[in-house]
Specification:
The structure holds 2 protein chains of 2 kinds. Chain A is an all-alpha fold. Helices cover about 60% and strands about 0% of the residues of chain A. The N and C termini of chain A lie far apart (about 60 Å). The longest helix of chain B has 9 residues. The chains are: A mainly alpha, B alpha+beta. At the A-B interface, helix 3, strand 1 and helix 4 of A face strand 1, helix 1, strand 4 and strand 5 of B.
Chain lengths: ~130, ~90
């Protein structure tokens, strides 16, 4: 877990937006222009993966990791946005048509029927083969 | 015990892809036995909005809503995690 702590320290010691020198890192400011500590948990496997990312010709491992974390955060936000949009769309649909809600009992019944049909089909195939 | 409900999309996915969806279906169903309607401790999940949760489980991303007043869990979205749909 040492590598995880290393990354979190880098995040916490950034100099803030606008004041950071090249390579020193930046981190987010709140409404009062104060730096905000954020928590990002990275496993050893995550770090090992980020080390494999190649971006540009001669970047160091740390720079590659920074780029990897930024990409991961962007992907996470994009995923959140897409999931929320889909959940909201479905909520709107079921509000206008509650019949779109399927109960556990209905699904159980449908799948049991499908399993029965599949079993029957397998038996028939077996019978034909023999 | 919580009542489990699905959106039509989730129902169709679980049904159409059955038996390949057996594991994720059983995992979802097991949630009804959780006292608080939340995934077991140590699970990979977070609350994306009030009473709406994203749960990464059994190679799927699941979005569900906890309706405590009705004591029900509504599963709106279930997608394979490795699906490049975003």
């Amino acid at each position: 877990m040492q590598a995880t702590n290393q990354i979190m320290t880098q995040v916490a010691e950034g100099n803030g937006r606008g004041g950071a020198g090249r390579g020193q890192g930046r981190h987010p400011l709140n409404d009062q222009n104060k730096t905000v500590r954020i928590t990002i948990t990275l496993t050893e496997d995550d770090l090992a993966f980020l080390d494999t990312i190649k971006h540009g010709g001669t970047q160091t491992v740390d720079q590659n990791r920074s780029a990897g974390v930024r990409w991961a955060l962007r992907a996470f936000r994009r995923e959140q946005k897409a999931l929320l949009a889909e959940a909201h769309r479905i909520k709107a649909e079921i509000e206008t048509d509650p019949l779109l809600i399927v109960t556990e009992e209905e699904l159980e019944r449908d799948i049991a029927a499908k399993v029965a049909a599949m079993t029957q089909q397998a038996k028939l195939a077996d019978h034909v083969e023999n | 015990m919580w009542k489990i409900e699905y959106s039509k999309e989730v129902r169709n996915y679980l049904y159409d892809s059955y038996p390949y969806t057996e594991t994720i279906w059983q995992t979802i169903k097991a949630l009804r036995h959780q006292i608080d309607g939340l995934p077991p401790p140590g699970s990979d999940y977070y609350e994306i909005e009030t009473e709406r949760f994203v749960w990464n489980v059994a190679a799927h991303t699941v979005v569900y809503e906890r309706r405590s007043d009705e004591h029900s869990l509504f599963f709106a979205v279930v997608k394979p995690s490795n699906d490049d749909w975003l």
